Amino acid sequence: MASNERKQENPQAAAAIDRIIHEPARYMIMAYLYVVESADFIFLLNQTGFTRGNLSSHIARLEESGYVEVIKEFVAKKPHTMLQLTRKGREAFEEYRKSLQQMLDGLPK
Predict the structure, then answer these.
(1) pLDDT at position 13
(2) Fewest C-beta in 10 Å: which of 25, 51, 74, 76?
(3) Residues 6+ apart with CB under 8 A from 44
(4) Is the pTM of this model over 0.70?
(5) Residue 109 covered by a domain
(6) What's 49's domain CATH number?
(7) What is the span of the domain harbouring residue 20?
(8) Domains held by the chain: number
(9) Residue 8 predicted with pLDDT over 50
(10) DSSP for 51-95, written as a single string
């Protein structure tokens, strides 16, 4: 009966997964930003291996969701983009990790 209970828990845990973060590219961005205070666009570009356009579109989606703050400035007359998780983004990533772990823990061994 315990295996049936576990099977019933999985759909509920899976439904709790944040679909914005769960997309692999956005997960990578969130994971990198989670472990640092902030990072610049070039750092994320190099770490992820994404194209500029691809990285920009995923960052825009995370920014629209309120998960990432984008700070644009000029350094030596050149554009410089810094990114950091917002409080909402940090909390959402922590909740995502918990939900994912619960879903995995509910799988039969």
Answers:
(1) 61
(2) 76
(3) 29, 32, 33, 50, 55, 59, 83
(4) yes
(5) no
(6) 1.10.10.10
(7) 2-104
(8) 1
(9) no
(10) -HHHHHHHHHHHHHTTSEEEEEEEETTEEEEEEEE-HHHHHHHHH
